[in-house]
Amino acid sequence: MxxxxxxxxVFLACAVSISVGAxxxxxxxxxxVFNNLPxxxxxxxxxxxxxxxxxxxxxxxxxxxxxxxxxxxVSSTGLVLTNHHVGADTLQKISTAEHDYYKExxxxxxxxxxxKAPDLELNVLQSIxxxxxxxxxxxxxxxxxxxxxxxxxxxxxxxxKESFEKTGLRSDVVTLYQxxxxxxxxxxxxxxxxxxxxxxxxxxxxxGDPDNxxxxxxxLDACLFRAYxxxxxxxxxxxxxxxxxxxxxxxxxxxxxxxGKTDRLNTVxxxxxxxxxxxxxxxxxxxxxxxxxxxxxxxxxEQARIAKEDLFGVQNSRKAYLGQIAGLQDAGIMAxxxxxxxALRARVESDPKLKAAYGSAWQKIEQAKxxxxxxxxxxxxxxxxxxxxxxxxxxxxxLVRLAEENAKPNTERLPEYSDAGRASLELQLYSTAPHYDxxxxxxxxxxxxxxxxxxxxxxxxxxxxxxxxGPAARAAELLAGSKLQDVAERRKIAAGGKQAIEESTDTLIxxxxxxxxxxxxxxxxxxxxxIEVERQAYGQISRALFEIEGPSRYPDATFTLRLSYGTxxxxxxxxxxxxxxxxxxxxxxxxxxxxxxxxxxxxQTWHSHKGDIDPKTPFNFVSNNDIIGGNSGSPVINxxxxxxGIIFDGNIQSLVGDFIFDETQNRAVSVHSSSxxxxxxxxxxxxxxxxxxxx
Amino acid sequence: MxxxxxxxxVFLACAVSISVGAxxxxxxxxxxVFNNLPxxxxxxxxxxxxxxxxxxxxxxxxxxxxxxxxxxxVSSTGLVLTNHHVGADTLQKISTAEHDYYKExxxxxxxxxxxKAPDLELNVLQSIxxxxxxxxxxxxxxxxxxxxxxxxxxxxxxxxKESFEKTGLRSDVVTLYQxxxxxxxxxxxxxxxxxxxxxxxxxxxxxGDPDNxxxxxxxLDACLFRAYxxxxxxxxxxxxxxxxxxxxxxxxxxxxxxxGKTDRLNTVxxxxxxxxxxxxxxxxxxxxxxxxxxxxxxxxxEQARIAKEDLFGVQNSRKAYLGQIAGLQDAGIMAxxxxxxxALRARVESDPKLKAAYGSAWQKIEQAKxxxxxxxxxxxxxxxxxxxxxxxxxxxxxLVRLAEENAKPNTERLPEYSDAGRASLELQLYSTAPHYDxxxxxxxxxxxxxxxxxxxxxxxxxxxxxxxxGPAARAAELLAGSKLQDVAERRKIAAGGKQAIEESTDTLIxxxxxxxxxxxxxxxxxxxxxIEVERQAYGQISRALFEIEGPSRYPDATFTLRLSYGTxxxxxxxxxxxxxxxxxxxxxxxxxxxxxxxxxxxxQTWHSHKGDIDPKTPFNFVSNNDIIGGNSGSPVINxxxxxxGIIFDGNIQSLVGDFIFDETQNRAVSVHSSSxxxxxxxxxxxxxxxxxxxx
Lengths: 695, 695
Prior knowledge:
Largest interface: A-B, 45 and 45 residues
Number of helices of chain A: 25
CATH architecture of the largest domain in chain A: Beta Barrel
CATH topology of the largest domain in chain A: Thrombin, subunit H
Oligomer: homodimer
Largest sheet of chain A: 10 strands, antiparallel
């Protein structure tokens, strides 16, 4: 379960979510921010009182993978453990026709053998500061949405830049409770990341798509990177010690990671928009991408290799979205949401002061969702670039906008072009990740087809984009006329600023220029008529909740560091008890049950070392921690702050977790710490590496 | 290239097509009706003058597979040759977990070994009668569309019933030039069809989806059935003799078969509707089905077997539609259509009489397509049943409607319930084809999800259908409460008439009853506001063309028997000459080139007999005959009326053939007659069967 949404781009836009139900947080629900942990619940339920040092240690041992996932430091020598499927983006990018790291796995016996990721950025949270008052203070009371949006953008850019200049740390203002609170997150950043160890794809994703989101499971979904500083392994103060026993049944465990996005507390109108408009659109798009990538992969073995990681991501997202929409289409789940919302609204209506201040919020959101429905397709096509599939158009767009935005003051730029984010933007823009002409052609052809289908063949912009040709012929022409696959060319154009863009004869630069006025226009409408309206309305609801309940809730996930607590325990499915963990021996049984055929074919290394492996070693386990996509790779930690496992999936029952948490069957699935050590030692012969873990 | 649209159901509805461009038929374009063959062109270009006997012989040797395809009699003993992929529907239905005819192939050494198809109907055209005057005479001048539609339905039902009672032959009134002409087609019908021989899937569809619609090609896409009458092999008067040499380069060849549907002569407004509305909708639906079937097939080897033929059909359609939409999105192709239409309209406008009689037609069609766009989704979901995927809902619907329609006079019934078509309807309704609970569940779950997405979770009908549950839980409940998988139960309900329906507690019968008022309502709107409006408008255009040009055009394809002529010849692709045929030896080279891996793995029989096969034997060949989906299995015939090959595909350039014919690259792809004999003798050791062909 990877937080692939970030990669796919379309799906994150306009994530608006906040506490809106009247239901109280109960059970082990919650993705808690580190500056407001549920100390009371932990003490009452588990007798556990985390010290400040414990919290600081866990926070600074946790790592965010900006490619979309989580991880943790597990040695003083900069080792970072994450999922194989989180590392996949890098494994794919460093692979070639000759050496397929993604498929075959890898182990660097010396530091010199550790290959460098072309564009991976890791973030480690250093501090959180509440800047709510400053952000809200910059927006004049009664300002129109457009003005309010601009004012907020400006003060956020200013705060981020000040913080960056003062501390040198990556500084992001995070909107929590959408207008309820704004917090400044400061991260230490690592951009020299190298691969140390990865198992074969066949054991990392054992059982493939059929077993994905299923349990019992038998996956070694883990890999190790090493963070470097100044060309040397980073010396890390905070890292997780390795638990001797690993996770045990009924043990209290914590997950410290970066859940991507939840809509758990959205209003009913917003949930129905997702159910009836957005999720069906996204699913159609995902299926379209899946078939396109399958077709491309059929062209040959090398094409199959090239498409593999993209395809995995799309299939993973498709399965996750199917689970979500199924939940939303379940009248029982929606009824709970409706009841909770009705109760809160009744409470607000019953108090004249609350009613005057907050009573209009729900209707505003309902109206904003109607507008969102009208703008959604154009926004996806033009602004998010789905009508121009593939990476090179995005590169061209970035170059065109970079020149335009650089000419503006920092506070007036699109946020992704602000000074504070410049280094991260350039890491992506100048990435040396491999470029594949034929995959780019397949994606651009499909994108132009999608554009034409959705806007119509007679649309004036479509006609200009296609220039009298069909999508396939036009895509070939556009790619033939561009040099943007060459990083030096990108740097040259970026250095040339506005003049270079104006004078460029590059076909993709020309396309990006052609599309940009319409793209910016639709983005502006989204910002002013949807995002800002919702932000203000959710701000009202948030304040109503604070007044009624106090600050007892966690905000919806925002791909920022959260702590969830829970216990290792099995569950019951169709009347059958599901055990809390599987074993490494069970993997062999599971393979046999499926005739040892793909995707249940264990790698040769496992067959060769079957006799060496202790079959009773716990392999995967479940706990009732509250997680979501983006948590992939999160460490599972015991009371002592030690590493006991690594999150890699949720069971099929957890897929409604975007909207609602159900403790009875909702389970997080992890790789057990013991199996990682066992595999490193017995299967891969990496004794020295195993010894480095936790030290 | 199978005419799978028939199976998928959604796609045939409202096929309206007629000659509307001002372009003259040229080159070897044309799907000619047998009572208006292009004698002049054949004489002038090829010096060929078919005799009445030649025409009669070819007509009565040609066979329509009502499951969606074509074929021919190739022996006096009732042998019918068609494509493996046309026979696939039957091969799948007679297969079990123990014996997979579809995958493994089959050869019946004696008549007693020939397994019977559970629901296959073959039609052989006996005569064509022009009934235009009678049909038009039944519609009063100035009648409103609803009345006109009812009147036409009634007279057609009457004509069909009269003809059937008089001749005992299946009698279909076919609408040609949509209101330009109505012809009565009479067919001899065979419903006892047994399998004689089929090769393995791996050689029938060698190269799989990647090679589909590609050329050069190396497929033995052929199989043999035998028609039985009175439990004995049918004695057939008209069958094709087997050519000794087979098709030769530059030879004049004819294709006699049943092209399913073309929109070649649609108005520009209708083409744009297809481009922007219908084709994108169908493609999304096909991708949805493809992913659903893939997912189902991953559940195990038996599930993969069960899903295989469905999956093949969906993938084939998806690729065909992609080719079509790509053609429509090509501004060059659309410009040709626009120019032709503008010229015709100018000609009509320039003549006051023509203008008064026909000038309003194009606008009427444009309006009808707007209405069609509004109704399309609901029509697909409710009337065509896409919101209730799988076969059992269709069975329930048929039973519910049968009871209701039987109570009406024949002339007032929905056409599929008229007396003339009753036997064909019952063949399907009481089919003993196997039923798979889990596939049905997957399809119904997906269908209910589609329904909910498209109509919205708050739609009152959707709420009633889901009954408070999510799609998956509701689908399981619906299937658990139905006995319709049992053919005896179907017969019992059908025999019980209206009372049995009213009293039934079967959950699917209840669902069909619940949905039927809305489904019938949307169908009525489609008939009266779209189909009838278009029929009248295309009738006007058709008459305008007759007046201007005379009856020199062929009507668009309607899954009725057509003759196309052409020559065997290669073409040039990307500057590279593509030879007119491949060889059987080339198949081994092609397999080697792809590492002998699926889908390029030749069956073991081929490897075992490699030394016996003459590698120079022509295998597949291309000709510039004008064909489309539904032509699959059509015999390719020489001047002497002999069999020289069998159509099985079109090249990728032919996929725009739905709209426009381009002789330069558009090619039909056939299996060469020599390779069928060579394979039967050398690979399969079926000497006796080979000797039976053409005798």
